[in-house]
Amino acid sequence: MTLRQQQKQQTRAALLEAARRLFVERGYAAVTVDDVTSEVGCSRATFYLHFNGKPDVLRRIGAETTQQRAASVYADLDAVLASGSRDRFTEWLRRALHWFEANRDILPVWDEAVALEPSFRPIATAAVAELPAAMPRYLQRWGASRGDEARLRVGLLVTQLERFFTRWAVQGTLDTTDTDPAETLTDIWYPALLPPEERHSAEQS
């Protein structure tokens, strides 16, 4: 790699870091491209050499700076469900909640961008679609004719985990003092992710 290439990579990384920090501190709407470039000490032209705009830089923050890609969390779930182990599913839920904890600062920024930035919504939609796509064995068990339902169930799982984490760990409005959230979520979601014939078989055994 040439010195110029190294400098370009360093500038790009600095822009990502500055954008993430500003988004977390001020919120998505309050931050401008000029704010980001001022933090780094570069021009708008330099910013646009690397990113198409605020939605693009937030997309790259999600892809490159989150602690563990969300898709890998759901690839892990694919293996867990294939094992047929309820206990392993409970452990996966604990790992998933740890993922939310590790990335809790950027999640409200993502939600704000979805609500306020129409051009960001397709990015968010594609990011959610990546999750069931990372679960080929799970989708195969549901079959092609029920693929949309299988993907919807994963989307609903993602949504409930995000809202649960927000109310439980961020807002503190959901009290779980006397319960194990992972066990309760397992009661709800482990059977819900099984294809109907597997669910009926599990209920009868």
TrEMBL record:
Residues 9-69 form the HTH tetR-type domain. It comes from the Bacteria. InterPro entries: Homeodomain-like_sf, HTH-type_TetR-like_transc_reg, HTH_TetR, Tet_transcr_reg_TetR-rel_C_sf. Keywords: DNA-binding, Transcription, Transcription regulation. Residues 32-51 bind DNA. SUPFAM superfamilies: Homeodomain-like, Tetracyclin repressor-like, C-terminal domain. PROSITE patterns: HTH_TETR_2. GO terms for molecular function: DNA-binding transcription factor activity; transcription cis-regulatory region binding. This is TetR/AcrR family transcriptional regulator. It comes from Saccharopolyspora terrae. The lineage of its organism: Bacteria, Bacillati, Actinomycetota, Actinomycetes, Pseudonocardiales.
